[in-house]
Input
Amino acid sequence: MLTPRNPNTFASYPLDRAGHRRKDEAWLAAALAGERAMVCAFRGDQPLLAEAAHGMEAVWLSTAALAFADPIAPVVFLGLAADGAPHFGFALPDGFDLAESPLGGLGEFADLRGAALALSEDACAILGCAKSLLDWHARNRFCARCGAGSVAAEAGWKRICAACGAEHFPRVDPVVIMLPVRHDRALMGRQARFPKGMYSALAGFVEPGESLEEAVAREVKEEVGLTVSSARYLHAQPWPFPSQLMIGMIATVIEDEAEVLEDEIDAVVWVSREEARAALSGGADTAAGRVFAPPRLAIAHHLLKAWAEEAP
Ligand SMILES: [Zn+2]
Output
């Protein structure tokens, strides 16, 4: 599948999602029974990972491991590898004792966010998808329309209410994340909870009835009092904590004076392209003191980088 290059962690899904197979019960059963099936395991929101020469790697188990699956959680179909091997994900019960099980010694459960930079891009994308999907099932066992129990269908890509028949689909929450720019400067903001000196892009949830451009304009106005004259989309990052889509935008603003208007934002700083490049590679000395950018795990890093590397 040809998709445009995307620099973000958790993006660039390497499997063929093979959506047309999700309704094919016979095909799914055969795929699960076949020798090439590979399954990844989660306990709560943590995947089973192992140490590897380059950092960490996902542990891919045979379907024999499904004997330990949480009986109320579905096995989800994640797609097909280039060699045709079907990949699945499943959840172990909350109190599952790894050390005492036959899976002990294969790896450890670890926080995906903390491990992401030690994992391959492919592993991050697959485990991120599996995490969002399994987490959605864990939090949506009852019908949002009538309150009765719902059951998983279509290889984990849908739930159907057993009482009223309503269909529910895995949710993705859109968030705009934007870098306000004017002439040759970009505005970065920091939250009080950030490490000292770290500044990032601005961000907020898209509200019902809003286009992306409207959400960008509203958030920039609310947070720093600036008027957006245009906004362009750059790239997006699936963010599986639990299930957001971070939509990266560059927002052109028409004023030079930003003010901190929301409790969420602690301080703002305008940076030049040169300062942005320095902030990305260790730190920049600016009017606001030493400033550095978020790590490459965050889309804000790649937004700032893309802007800093553009010709002014
Ligand atoms: Zn219902």
About this structure: The two ends are 34 Å apart (CA to CA). The first strand starts at residue 38 and ends at 43. The chain has a mean pLDDT of 96.
